[in-house]
Amino acid sequence: MILKLLPVEVELDLISAATSPIITPQVIISFTRAGGDYANAVPFCLLASRRAFLHDSKKFPTDYDENIGRALACEVLARRIVHALPMETLQTVMSTRYRYREDDGDRSAPTSALEAAIDGHAIQFLSSTEAQHVVTSLWNGEWIQQNNEADDIDYIRYDASKIHTFWGHVNPQRLGVPRYQNIFRQIVWITFLVVYSQAVASPLWRSDPLNSLDQWEYVLYLFAFSQMLEECVKLVKSIRLSSSLFSAVDFWTVVTVTTDVLLLSALGLRIEGICNKDTDLSMQLRMKSFQVLACVAPLLWIRLITVFELYRVVGTMQIIVSRMLRESAIFFILLGIMALGFIQSLLALDAADSKIDSFWAIINLLIQALLGSPGFDQYEEGFSPPFGMVIYYFWSFLTLLILLNILIALFGTAYSDISENAMNEYLCAYSYKTISMIRAPDSFVYPSPFNIVEFFFIAPIEWFVSKKTYEKINLWIMRFLFFIPLTVIAVYESQIAPSKRFAAMFPENDVDGDITSAMEDPEDEEDGTKISAWSFEELTENFPNTTLGDQATIVNHIVQLESRMKKMEKLLESQSK
């Protein structure tokens, strides 16, 4: 049907426009009817088709523009169809998971429409009102995931108003709500930074004669290990859900791995210094440990952006910076290739004059030139003058005047592209963050640093006790460990939450019930009067038809004129006879 709809290339703006002459109401009805009794599966099928067209656009470059247009049409159709469906079917449409046959004949992993949109970075779909309603409900904990009889996942409403006791609200499973996970993570990270600041501020001479770890270092490395454990779980999950290894690795993954490596190196040097009996060597290792630990500070502070990324300003800034760094890949590739050639040339010239300098000295000189402070004095005597000087001039010219200008142009293009669509990009990132917290549902969530307790003491028990006993053990341990946060959550949900007050005002109404977009003529049943003397139909009969664009309107008028002309011809023929 998509190929029939778009057999040739069309402008993308004509597809995504609100009054598109291509995605008309009649087209939407046709695609909805194509689902038959499985109309709720049509949005997922369209998103799966979008993925196939995007794959074809990369596989067949000659049809790139056509397939990109078809992929966009699939996404826009999925968005419009979800908008047209009754509100009570939204949970089913978004949460029901389906399998399909892949190109190699294997069955795919079960995926829902919302998850397919997130995996495919479907900005048009995820920025819709319906998708954001689902994501926001999951984020706030108003909707929760529940396993059904088919061992699948459904989104159901969590109605806190039906819990009539305070202790009923003290539910450890509420820690799995993305909003509470995010708040807890922010508190943990702020605490982690405070502990780190105290650890690196401890003077070396304050260590005891045994040169053991102090209390701040114990807490620091405990936090660090819990963070590493949490990031490893996230990375494994991301690799499992991604189509390839490289798609699961981004800028923040590199920052996280670098941070963990430096922390482990600092801990290793510290332990080696404690175990070493040589006092002087022990102090040197302790000094090295603190020096490596001090280098972690910039990486820890920059990771605060990922902790507070769901605030709109921070999230938008992160998206823009990430996109700019991604677009600058071509600059670093060109820079790396050129650098290898110049390094080899300078090393050869350095060996030719029988005065071999350090390899790192050459690297340092090239980096200085790249940063705008070239050291030309070094080449007046060494590196086989004047050849070394000519090579260095050439390097400075290429990097300062050509490559850096290419980098500035790439940054400018990336910024202009992403800033125009920054809000939709933020909503897409917000959706990804929310679903990633609950996609592989864990009935008992132990946030860092308490995941260490789960890893060493709770998880091994699961193999030796029944499922019911394991659940009871988790509930009691979580109530003990998280008594304070669970109490705060219970007070909020039972007394402060807006949904609680709304349910109290309208106890008989289902907030997420049957809500349709049908227009009704409101009447006052008590005294039989109307708000207006004119009916709703009479007031709106002269409204312009904004569902059709200019081209579609012209075509519609031409069809109407053609029909009238045919009637007139038949009338004239009948009169002539």
Written description of the protein model:
- Keywords: Membrane, Transmembrane, Transmembrane helix.
- The chain crosses the membrane at residues 248-269, 289-308, 329-347, 359-379, 391-415, 473-492.
- InterPro entries: LHD_YVC1, TRP_calcium_channel, YVC1_C.
- Residues 192-500 form the Calcium channel YVC1-like C-terminal transmembrane domain.
- Residues 1-170 form the YVC1 N-terminal linker helical domain.
- The protein has 577 residues and is an all-alpha fold.
- Among the domains are: 2-163, no CATH class; 202-308, no CATH class; 327-434.
- It is 65% helix and 2% strand.
- The chain has 28 helices and four strands.
- It has helices spanning 2-5, 12-16, 25-34, 42-59, 64-84, 90-95, 113-119, 123-126, 129-140, 166-169, 178-200, 215-241, 245-248, 251-275, 279-294, 297-302, 304-307, 312-327, 329-352, 359-370, 387-420, 422-438, 451-458, 467-481, 483-496, 498-505, 536-540, 550-576, and strands spanning 97-98, 111-112, 143-147, 153-157.
- The strands form two sheets. The protein has a two-stranded antiparallel ribbon with strand order 1-2. Strands 3-4 form a two-stranded antiparallel sheet.
- The chain is flat, with a radius of gyration of 32 Å.
- The two termini are 46 Å apart.
- Mean pLDDT is 80; it is low at 506-522.
Short description:
By secondary structure, this protein is mainly alpha-helical. Among the domains are: 2-163, no CATH class; 202-308, no CATH class; 327-434.
